[in-house]
Design goal:
Oligomer: single chain
Radius of gyration: 37 Å
Number of helices: 8
Number of strands: 20
Strand order of the largest sheet: 7-8-12-10-9-13
């Protein structure tokens, strides 16, 4: 009971805790109103399901757009670069190999002749010469295999007329370079072009599925051959490598709609008028301009094609610490 004698009025004073609570509410009222206003614009749901809620007004202001993408059938391909090779190096190796092979045969004959002459000193000398010629031939083959691969070297050193296609005038040798960490298997046939357009293309056939090191640049090199007369030696070219045996049906998601997080591709699906969900892309194929998604359960829902980066920022902005946050 509070007694004010001057005014002759008795007032009951509220308890101290209640008064403090009332004053604290007045102080925090602007912050509470601001928080409620922000919540009206964008609300992040439980982070476990990667969901997000945005009002139509905020969607319009941010230019966000989601749509059902057109279903298409396409052959997934991968672009790689390469060059046609001059066959003079192959012919030179073939000539050096045959010459060294003849020297080895001659040394062997000399060694056998020395045995019949019962001259130990001459036999030792001829045997040493034969071993030297044999090592020289093996070295020649080994160096060529590092540059061209075992199968090409075997083709060039096999004395069969049918193996001469590699050095024939109608055959052009093609080298295709790939990164060292490339996990795609090289197909049996690829499409080649001298420029980025595909109006004038040719088909090339794989010579050896085992790669060689693309020295001096880091990477792997695969050899193909083509018999198209349009390709001349030492020409840069583009190769399209099919990733599947048959065309696939799906939708092409543009690069602008793809978010990369923790080395994984994601897109945003519009699951309702104001709700969005980040979806991991488990099965896709690179195509021109984006990724071909073949999972129906994904592309049957509208996909965010504009504004995905904004959604990603909104989803994770709560995890970014404030500048004055010392925790």
């Amino acid at each position: 009971m509070c007694n004010f004698l001057n005014n002759q009025i008795d007032l009951r004073c509220p308890s101290l805790p209640l008064a403090l609570f009332f004053l604290a509410g007045l102080v925090n009222l602007p912050q509470t109103l601001a928080t409620e206003e922000l919540t009206d614009e964008t609300t992040q749901s439980a982070s476990l399901d990667n969901s997000l809620t945005l009002t139509p007004a905020l969607q319009a202001r941010s230019g966000l757009h989601a749509e059902h993408l057109k279903i298409t059938t396409q052959q997934p391909e991968m672009i790689r670069y390469g060059r046609t090779l001059a066959k003079s190096a192959l012919l030179q190796f073939q000539s050096d190999y045959l010459r060294q092979q003849a020297r080895l045969k001659k040394a062997y004959a000399q060694k056998q002749l020395a045995k019949t002459q019962h001259s130990r000193l001459k036999a030792d000398a001829e045997n040493t010469q034969w071993r030297a010629e044999k090592i020289a031939l093996q070295t020649l083959q080994s160096e060529a295999a590092e540059q061209w691969g075992q199968k090409i070297v075997h083709t060039l050193t096999t004395a069969q007329p049918t193996q001469g296609f590699l050095t024939a005038p109608s055959t052009t040798l093609v080298a295709i370079n790939t990164p060292l960490d490339d996990r795609y298997r090289m197909p049996a046939t690829i499409t080649l072009a001298l420029h980025s357009n595909r109006r004038h293309t040719a088909t090339a056939t794989l010579l050896d599925p085992v790669p060689v090191t693309a020295f001096p640049s880091p990477g792997k090199r695969f050899f193909y051959y083509t018999q198209d007369p349009a390709f001349l030696p030492n020409q840069p070219l583009i190769a399209w490598l099919p990733l599947t045996q048959q065309p696939l049906t799906g939708v092409i998601v543009p690069d602008s709609a793809i978010i990369h997080h923790l080395d994984q591709p994601f897109i945003y699906l519009k699951t309702g008028p104001v709700t969005f969900k980040r979806q991991h892309i488990a099965l896709s194929y690179p195509v021109s301009g984006g990724l071909l998604i073949v999972e129906q359960k994904i592309y049957q829902t509208p996909i965010v094609t504009r504004g995905a980066q904004m959604l990603f920022s909104e989803e994770f902005k709560g995890t970014i610490p404030e500048e004055d946050d010392d925790d």
